[in-house]
Amino acid sequence: MAEVSQRDPGLQPQRTALAWVRTGLAVFVNALIVLRAGFATAQVFILALGTVLLAASALSVVLGTWRVRHLAAHGARAAPPWILMVGTVWIAWLACIAGVLSMVATIE
After folding, report:
1. pTM for this model (two decimals)
2. How far apart, in Å, do the first and last CA atoms of the chain sit?
3. Among the four 8, 53, 60, 67, which has the fewest Cβ within 10 Å?
4. How far is Cα 59 from Cα 21, in angstroms, rounded to an integer?
5. One-letter-per-residue 3-state SS of 22-35
6. DSSP conformation letters of the chain
7. What is the predicted pLDDT for the residue at 77?
8. What is the mean pLDDT of residues 6-20?
9. Looking at beta carbons, which pairs linking 68-77 to residues 24 or more positions away fall under 8 Å?
10. For position 24, what pLDDT does the model report?
11. 78-105 residue pLDDT tens
12. Dihedral of CA 29/81/63/50: which sign?
């Protein structure tokens, strides 16, 4: 007879919060690539986009770290604030758009 494993419901929120930190670090790498492309092509728009990505990556890492600490202190009693989830989605979209624009900028 197969034994059914017990699931710990507290781990999923912690994994999600850690994913926010990883997303912020990935956006940081994209921001560096975009900034490099902006400097190489001397395009102000790309430089501005890279700067916004740097700020967004810092915000994502800070909010993800805050969420990890909040979960450690209070447990997974509530869902994260909606603004954190919306902000994370926009940070990811901004990173994707910046990556595509930086590639297009270096082709020209």
Report:
1. 0.63
2. 65
3. 8
4. 10
5. HHHHHHHHHHHHHH
6. -PPPPPP-TTHHHHHHHHHHHHHHHHHHHHHHHHHHHHHHHT-HHHHHHHHHHHHHHHHHHHHHHHHHHHHHHH-S-SPPPHHHHHHHHHHHHHHHHHHHHHHHHHH-
7. 62
8. 69
9. 68/14, 68/17, 68/18, 68/21, 71/10, 71/13, 71/14, 71/17, 72/14, 75/10, 76/9, 76/10, 76/12, 76/13, 76/14
10. 83
11. 666 788 778 778 877 877 787 787 777 7
12. positive
| Tokens 């994260």, residue located | 80
pLDDT score recorded for residue 58 = 85
Q: pLDDT digits over 52-79, tens only?
A: 888 888 887 887 788 778 777 776 666 6
Give domain limits for the chain: 12-107
Higher-confidence residue of 36 and 9: namely 36
Length of the chain as a residue count: 108
